[in-house]
TrEMBL record:
Catalyzes the phosphorylation of the position 2 hydroxy group of 4-diphosphocytidyl-2C-methyl-D-erythritol. It catalyses: 4-CDP-2-C-methyl-D-erythritol + ATP = 4-CDP-2-C-methyl-D-erythritol 2-phosphate + ADP + H(+). Pathway: Isoprenoid biosynthesis; isopentenyl diphosphate biosynthesis via DXP pathway; isopentenyl diphosphate from 1-deoxy-D-xylulose 5-phosphate: step 3/6. The keyword Membrane does not apply. Residues 70-152 form the GHMP kinase N-terminal domain. Keywords: ATP-binding, Isoprene biosynthesis, Kinase, Nucleotide-binding, Transferase. HAMAP family: IspE (MF_00061). ATP binds at P98, V99, A100, G101, G102, M103, A104, G105, G106, S107, A108. The lineage of its organism: Bacteria, Bacillati, Actinomycetota, Actinomycetes, Streptosporangiales. It is an enzyme of class 2 (transferase). Residues 213-284 form the GHMP kinase C-terminal domain. This is 4-diphosphocytidyl-2-C-methyl-D-erythritol kinase. It comes from the Bacteria. GO terms for molecular function: kinase activity.
């Protein structure tokens, strides 16, 4: 069973106060884009995980765990426990989503494993697990996993796992600039908290941007670009100041919107047209400000059997 699963970009990431459970209240507008990992699940004598870069990608997979610490392995264990079977499965992960780049590659692999293992072990004629069940199970693994199952464009609240699909018209064209090395998501959130405390700012209660939702509903790329926001961007720039140069370069080459994707360090640029995206990508390539420049479009479906 092979499942293809997309990367995400956060169109809005509003970070509220730190909760007693260690998470922050979030408003997270997710958007699935056409950079895909694939996870293949097959029966095996025991749980096995292998990770490799997709043939057409240059993703560095050296730091991705190929054992029970991989989120896909944890996902397989949850499905097995729910269905009352042993987690005897080989999971082969082929990655094209940047690793530790703020595009939820690990969460995507977990979502793909949930779907693949459910198809492998569940009764096909009378399945026990629904897609909603898989999303609920995904929330036990991480806040981004349910969206990777769902796909499209969606608003996430709570810690990001409570999802409502968002009306989106048309196709949006993106360019992503990756960086050498990743950024730790917990470290970026901690830096966000530190910067607010240093300034004596109380954490705001985030709310969904009406301008953003209108832009999505009308398919207006310029309006969407103007409405992109990420409360973690300042913290990511504090930890990796070189990202400011990348953002400036993308704007100079014609992006109608630019922001750090999630906790970074990947930078995302919205283009008005597909042709503009090609020009932005060429410009960023020539400027040498990124480890790799990738083009994608969205929204696309979530984890899907292929």
């Amino acid at each position: 069973m092979t499942v293809r699963v997309p990367a995400k970009v956060n169109l809005q990431l509003g970070v509220g106060p730190l909760r007693e459970d260690g998470y922050h209240d979030l408003v997270n507008v997710f958007h699935a884009v056409s950079l895909f990992d694939e996870v293949t699940a097959a029966d095996a004598a025991r749980l096995e995980v292998s990770v490799q870069a997709a043939p057409y990608s240059r993703v560095a997979v050296g730091g991705v765990p190929a054992d029970g610490d991989n989120l896909a392995a944890r996902a397989a264990g949850l499905v097995a426990a729910r269905l009352g079977v042993e987690p005897r499965v080989s999971l082969r992960i082929r990655k094209a989503i940047p690793v530790a780049g703020g595009m939820a590659g690990g969460s995507a692999d977990a979502a793909a494993a949930l779907v693949a293992c459910a198809r492998l072990w569940d009764d096909r004629d009378d399945p026990v697990l629904t897609r909603e069940d898989l999303m609920e199970m995904g929330a036990e693994i991480g806040s981004d996993v349910p969206f990777a199952v769902l796909g499209g464009t969606a608003v996430g609240v709570g810690r990001g796992e409570q999802l409502t699909s968002a009306l989106t018209r048309g196709t949006f064209h993106w360019v992503f600039a990756t960086a050498d090395g990743g950024l730790s998501t917990p470290a970026v959130y901690a830096e966000c908290d530190r910067l607010r405390e240093t300034r004596g700012e109380p954490a705001p209660r985030p709310s969904v941007s009406e301008e953003l939702m209108t832009a999505l509903a009308t398919g207006d790329a310029k309006a969407l670009g103007a409405a992109l926001t990420n409360d973690l961007q300042e913290a990511a720039l504090s930890l990796r100041p070189s990202l400011e140069r990348v953002l400036d370069a993308g704007r100079d080459f014609g992006a109608v919107g630019a922001l750090v994707s999630g906790s970074g360090p990947t930078c995302a640029f919205l283009a008005e047209t597909e042709e503009d995206a090609a020009g932005i990508a060429d410009g960023l390539d020539g400027a040498g400000v990124a480890a790799q420049v990738l083009r994608a479009s969205g929204p696309v479906p979530g984890a899907t059997l292929v």
